[in-house]
Amino acid sequence: MKQKALRDLSELEVPKRWEYLRRYYREARAFHGAREEVVTDAEVRGAVAGLKDRPKPLYRKVVPIEDWRFTLDAEDGGLRAGYFTCAHDESGWDGVRLPHSFSEVPQDPVLFGRTDYMFYARRDNNPVADIWKGDMTAWYKARVDLEPIDGGRGKYFYLHTGIDHPVAYLSVGSANLVSDVWVNESPVSFEHTGPFPYKVEVTEALCSGVSASPVVAVRVKNTVSNMPHLFANGFQHCYFGDRFFGGEARYDWPDRADGGLAGDVTLTVLNKHHIEDAFIRTRSIGKGSASVELTVTTRNQFSSRAYGKVGISVTEWVDGPGEGGPAEAALYDVSSRPMDDTAHTFTVNVRDPKLWTPDEPNMYLAHIVLYGEGGEPIDDVYEPFGVRTFAMNGSSFYLNGRRTVLQGTHDIANYHGESLIWLSDAMIAKDILLHKRMGANCSRWPSDSRMHHRRIAECCDQLGFMLTWAGYFEVWNIHPNAEMFATRDVKAMVRDLRNHPSIVIWEMGDETLQCDNHFRRMRFFDLMHDLVLESDPTRPIVPSGYYSGMVTGFSGFDPDAGGDPDVRAIRVASEYPLYDKPNVAWDVHMGNVANLNALTDLMNGKKPLIFTEFGGCNALPDPSLTSAEYGGFHWNKTPFWNVEPAKSDIGIFGRMIGPDDWRETQAMSAAKLGFLIGALRQHPDAVAAYQFVMLIDYWTIYVGATDIHGNAKLAFHIAKSHFEPVFITALQGNAIVGAEAARDVTVNNQGPDIAGATLRVTVRGDGGAAAVEAVFKGVDAEGGVALTKVASLDISSLREGIYAFEYAMTDGEGRPLGRMFEMAYVEAADRGPAIAADGGGGSPQTD
Q1: Mind listing the pLDDT tens digit for each residue in 266-315?
Q2: Which 3 state secondary structure label does DSSP give 23?
Q3: CA 154 to CA 183: how far, in whole Å?
Q4: Is the distance from CB of 332 to CB of 293 less than 8 angstroms?
Q5: pLDDT digits (tens, 9 = 90+) for 410-420
Q6: CB-based burial of residue 783 (10 Å sphere; 0-12 exposed, 13-18 middle, 19+ buried)?
Q7: CA-CA-CA-CA torsion sign (64, 69, 74, 79)
Q8: 233 falls in which pLDDT band (50, 70, 90)?
Q9: Could you write out the DSSP letters of every residue in 240-274?
């Protein structure tokens, strides 16, 4: 059904608006029993302690290089000084462990140019912005503890393993941003740009014998700018001090830019005939069994075809390999082409599978062993995975065959006290637990960042949370090599993560190429889709955040300017094959009803719609909980939130806000978020996912549902109630309603069918007295994400004023099924106002 126009708080006169906010804060907190601490430190520690580590292989030698010496090289003289050489003494450098990052901003940036279209750094009254650029270099060096087989300087290379016909690789999980690598003084990789995984063969370098033990050196260069998307992508904004803006304090922003080795670095020694990759997917789930397909790619570095067998055993992943008991074990003949990769596909039947869901994140462990022609084991890998399917059908998503609405946040992965390029286990666990406590099941994470951090997916697998993986880093980018990098890096990213059951959607960067021309942008979307599909044909794909907004934008340029805009947009969409390609889901940002209507018409039920980046509003934290970090409040623009406070405050609140208005701002944020989610839940057949801005405040931005420490604001509790399976409303997203007619009471039920329930609705005026009470018995509400009109509520007796709407539904045994709070300004012009306004917005009330 077509969404009606919503009536927002902004329609209220300013005094009535502030009266509404004061009451909303007070009464909503009381209704929900709101508290600030919703996840304890002990819960976070317990979650981290329960995380399992992937078992180590039995037949290949894997040496994680964790202990390094580190030094900054601000003058970039390390190469000339020979830092990479085996003889160079690095004992005076700092000792560090991976992952590691350095946060260093060069103090002498150069003016790299000027631009008139970069949104994030545009000056007031000046369409031209300066581009500042600096570079910071650092070095990492490690001496690897491997015994040479002859006890000397390495006749062949360092290998005390018994592996026949060995070959060696060095794998880099994430280097940020440009990296050069030496092994025993041999350059094995140089000028690799981007944080995504890569590996290089280092067999010959290890054979060089120039050192008593292998020496690995990595030089990392980080590019720092006020426009990082121009060079490095991801939001690491710097150079916003007065001297860069003519002495005017233009931004409140702490300059930070993190580089370093943000992932693991591993030396792997294995047979020239070995396992290169394994992709595990659940084909189908039946009664008492699940069909799991494994595509095992073998690499043969011999000059003739290699023969052998692949053995596969699958167990539940409890605490260690094999402890769950074998679900299936099989042995298959294989042959591998010479000097090539060969893919072999096998099907394993898992009996009585324990499915992976966010509520029950059951994990399995596949042990894949490659045997040589003589039957001897020559290589193996362990791969954790989950038995689960995730599919698109029409306008909906289905998890394990059950229709599922994805609800969560746009999680930008910037946290107080954490690195910009990797996160601690405690921070990841806290983020997940906060989301789950709020009732969320899926977020876009990590987004808008220059980060590849596999650990997020590993933790989500085990703690039970779904991800729209928005980890591709081409954000608002015009880099000339964007397409070249994508061709290499998209495959590396997807193949590194595709066995994680928590990842259900690939989103290839947020608002990619928004600063570039339309033609290149559309072709880039096509490229991204095709690259992902090649590496993973199983998951839905969003080629770029907000890419569906292009259709409605282009429709405005249609020659038929006088025609129906919806019809015009449908015609435009038909010209773009991208929007109907395999696996693509649609998404739109800055959610509003106009976008919802336009995209609903465009899709016509063909594709799931993801509604994201909505609901952002200043919600000041309780100053007693954050004063030590902020030392006050920040009111100028930030590079993330490029809105003038004078304009946004007046538009939203009706006047400028100050630190003492933190309760009212929290109320506005919570109310607006509730209105929008309430409106979206009236359209279960049109909206398959919604992800609001955002969970945790960061730095100088206050739009989170929690403050920088994870203390819950009012919006957290409102989101929690609006994410419940049973959602009851008579306002349907409106802040202002009329009393002239009865209100439909609807239930959006994501759970099982409800029959014979009792619904109680209480409408309270100021002071808490009930102005309307109604009890409806024998209420039925269809389940499976259906919308049902369950009652008609007569509010014609209400005088004009602000009223709280409270709903409670119980089953036939009196057990609670759903409970909701909403507030509306009720217009009843023919009756006098029941509640007087305070006249001017006045000073905030305290609890």
Answers
A1: 999 999 999 999 999 999 999 999 999 999 999 999 999 999 999 999 99
A2: helix
A3: 14
A4: no
A5: 998 899 999 99
A6: middle
A7: negative
A8: confident
A9: -SGGGTTT---B------EEEE-S-EEEEEEESEE
Q: Which residues contact 54 (CB under 8 A, 6 or more apart)?
A: 382, 384
Specify the pairing of strand 689-692 against strand 406-409.
Answer: parallel
Q: What is the largest CA-CA distance in the chain?
A: 99
N-terminal to C-terminal alpha carbon distance within the chain: 42
| 194 burial level (CB within 10 Å; 0-12, 13-18, 19+) | buried
Which residues contact residue 77 at a Cβ distance below 8 angstroms, ignoring those fewer than 6 apart?
none
The secondary element (H helix, E strand) that includes residue 568 is: helix 565-574
Give the residue among 160, 162, 163, 190 at the shortest CA–CA distance from 175: 190
Q: Is 12 left (phi over 0), alpha (psi -120 to 50) or beta?
A: beta
* Alpha carbons 683 and 600: distance in angstroms, whole number: 10
Separation CA 677–CA 691 (nearest Å)? 10
In DSSP terms, 137 is beta-bridged to 73, 221
Backbone angles phi, psi at 48, to 5 degrees: -65, -40
Q: How far is CA 829 from CA 13, 741, 748, 833, in A?
A: 15, 13, 32, 8
Q: Residue 80 corresponds to which tokens in the numbers above?
A: 């000339």
Say which DSSP state 498 is in. Answer: T
Q: Which of 833, 846, 820 is nearest to 723 (CA)?
A: 820
- Counting Cβ atoms within 10 Å, is residue 511 exposed (0-12), middle (13-18) or buried (19+)? buried
For the ranges 285-299, 513-527, 796-810, the lowest mean pLDDT is seen at 513-527
Rounded distance, CA 425 to CA 463, Å? 12
- Residue 531's nearest CA partner among 516, 546, 509, 549 is 509
508: left (phi over 0), alpha (psi -120 to 50) or beta: beta
Q: Which residues of 467-478 are buried (b: 16+ CB within 10 A; e: fewer)?
A: bbbbbbbbbbbb
Distances (CA, A) of 97 to 224, 454, 718: 24, 17, 41
Percent of the chain with pLDDT over 90: 69
pLDDT, tens only, 366-391: 999 999 999 999 999 999 999 999 99
For the segment 583-618, what is each residue's pLDDT rounded down to a tens digit?
999 998 876 666 676 677 777 778 899 999 999 888
Q: Yes or no: say if 470 and 509 are a contact pair by the CB < 8 Å rule.
A: yes
Cα 369 to the center of its chain, rounded Å:
34
* DSSP one-letter code for 10: G
Q: How far is CA 397 from CA 335, 355, 547, 846, in A?
A: 39, 17, 19, 44
In terms of Cβ atoms closer than 10 Å to its own Cβ (0-12, 13-18, 19+), residue 190 is exposed
Over residues 625-638, mean pLDDT: 76
Q: Which two tokens stand for residue 348?
A: 């394993």
Phi-psi region of 302 (alpha: psi -120 to 50; beta: other; left: phi over 0): beta
For 292-325, b/e burial (b = at least 16 CB within 10 A) is bebebbbbbbeeeebebebbbbbbbbeeebeebe
Q: Residue 32's CB: how many other CB atoms inside 10 A?
A: 18
Whether the CB-CB separation of 403 and 397 falls below 8 Å is answered with yes
* CA dihedral angle for residue 520, residue 525, residue 526, residue 529, rounded to 10 degrees: 160
Pairwise CA distance, residues 198 & 172, whole Å: 5
Instruction: Output the DSSP codes for 88-100.
Output: S--TTSEEEESS-
**For the whole model, what pTM was predicted?**
0.94
